[in-house]
């Protein structure tokens, strides 16, 4: 960590938010970094809820899947209380349910399953042939070349220090209303060290898994999450952890949106290491609704 006189880095701040305070048996309290947003980032709530669940399972039992629902927007100005229910402790699998509470109401619920590590059949899909991150613009270059005349919401997004750096293969949807195929490829990388601890590694991966997904479902409609005429929000989120995670290099987040209907968009994602190892799969449905006054 940095010295007390220095400002914590974005990654140090994220890791601090994952260090939940135990306040009773199977009850934890988490805080949100004060970064000026009106609501808590969904990935933070997923990550904190997963950490709460992991804290109630033996360390050799590792998360292999989670399924979650967002019910209300989180208030970043007050702590979030996470209540864990021990659904089942079996010989190979454990199941936990976590409810996140603010102002006396549930804002989020997560179910997670844990398994002892064991050998078995092994196959995976092939990583697509995508330009390497070193060939793409970094966030500072994007800011210099594109942000001078960009809308304020886009400037704020790119200029704020984040624990996860992103390098999209294409920037078209940020600065154009062109209708695109519902496919997106984004390189992601931790901006600081992540502990060599499977609990923190899984939670940080869960945190970043909520980044950029909603955008992909908007590609065919020539808009983005920064469009003030639409209302966007994560509704549910599922994730499967396939293989061990490391954060010492870039990860490729490939995404596609097979459907949008009923004011909802569905996006699927795969997370690969640079050398093509599939470490996790993601699926999310989000609200994409035209605002009533438009």
UniProtKB/TrEMBL annotation:
Which is a GO BP term held by this UniProt record?
fatty acid catabolic process
For this protein, what is the EC number?
Answer: 3.1.2.20
Q: Which residues form the Acyl-CoA thioesterase-like N-terminal HotDog domain?
A: 37-115
What does it catalyze? a fatty acyl-CoA + H2O = a fatty acid + CoA + H(+)
Tell me which InterPro entries the record gives: Acyl-CoA_hotdog (IPR042171), Acyl_CoA_thio (IPR003703), HotDog_dom_sf (IPR029069), TesB_ACOT8-like_N (IPR049449), TesB_C (IPR025652)
Q: Output the superkingdom of the source species.
A: Bacteria
Question: What sequence ranges are listed for the domain Acyl-CoA thioesterase 2 C-terminal?
Answer: 159-287
User: Which UniProt keywords are present, listed alphabetically?
Assistant: Hydrolase, Lipid metabolism
List the CDD domains.
Answer: Thioesterase_II_repeat1, Thioesterase_II_repeat2
Top class in the EC scheme: hydrolase
An MF annotation (GO) of this entry: fatty acyl-CoA hydrolase activity
Q: Which Pfam families match?
A: 4HBT_3, Acyl_CoA_thio
The entry's family comment says:
Belongs to the C/M/P thioester hydrolase family.
SUBUNIT field = Homotetramer.
Name of the protein: Acyl-CoA thioesterase 2
Organism name:
Rhizobium grahamii
Q: What is this organism's lineage?
A: Bacteria, Pseudomonadati, Pseudomonadota, Alphaproteobacteria, Hyphomicrobiales
